[in-house]
Amino acid sequence: MADLPRPLIDAPTLIERLAARQPTRVFDVSFDLADSAAGERAHAEAHVPGAYHLHLDRDLADHAPAADGRPRGRHPLPTRAAFAATLGRFGVDAARPVVVYDRSGGMYAARAWWMLRWMGHDAVALLDGGWAAWRAAGGAVETEAPVPPMATHYVPSAPRVHTVDAGMLLRGLGRWRLIDARAPERFRGDVEPLDPVAGHIPGALNRPFKNNLGADGRFRPAAALRADFAALLGEAPADEVVHQCGSGVTACHNLLAMEVAGLSGAALYPGSWSEWCADPARPVARG
User: Fold this and answer.
1) What is the pLDDT of residues 115-140, one digit of tens each?
2) Among 61, 110, 164, 245, which one carries the catalytic annotation?
3) Model-level pTM greater than 0.85?
4) Which of 32, 137, 233, 269 yields a CA-CA distance of 20 to 30 A from 209?
């Protein structure tokens, strides 16, 4: 069995892989923040053959309140045990290669990619260019719901990625190199369509996740991404970098871009701005 290319796989390679019946679980992670059912509808209308749909709100987040009652943000991570159960329900075990894609330049699929890495999963890749690239490459289209998989028992291993929580970030302000993946107008605090407070975490640098993509919707070359991060971070090593966004979703896109660039070791602040700004005791910056 050919190894799965990672962290990105192009559409022609995935077409060949599926045609050769190499064991691969494909997930469609399409979603729309303005219409939480839109991704499911799009998946039901057409998807990569055999692909199952992962829902951002139900499968990749857990909205139960924290034990101390504090807000955890708009898309809190589920427990590793809960996500392991989700993967097992879709017939994934720790050895099965997984490919994720969406219809938004990897905006949501990157969250699934990162969460699989968080589970210790090694063989996971994002379909570069997503659904548009699949169609452009002549990939087959399935409109029927895939056959329900045989459930497995997914056993997580040591995480391959790192996280920090709000307390760690607050104590480390000024030490961490914090990157915010939101659009510039939200970062500055000019507008805030989703969260109750506008602005950003003091000391954060802005790198909108869309800067990782070329005009074709695919990730830019590794050397170009590496140069971008070097210009932003200077000599700071990757293990001193923390990524965040509005709710811990698009920050994963920047983490994936750093991986493409050969810069492994950065951490995610999963609660991101939506958790941070829910506590009025935490500092806020604007501009």
Assistant:
1) 999 999 999 999 999 999 999 999 99
2) 245
3) yes
4) 137
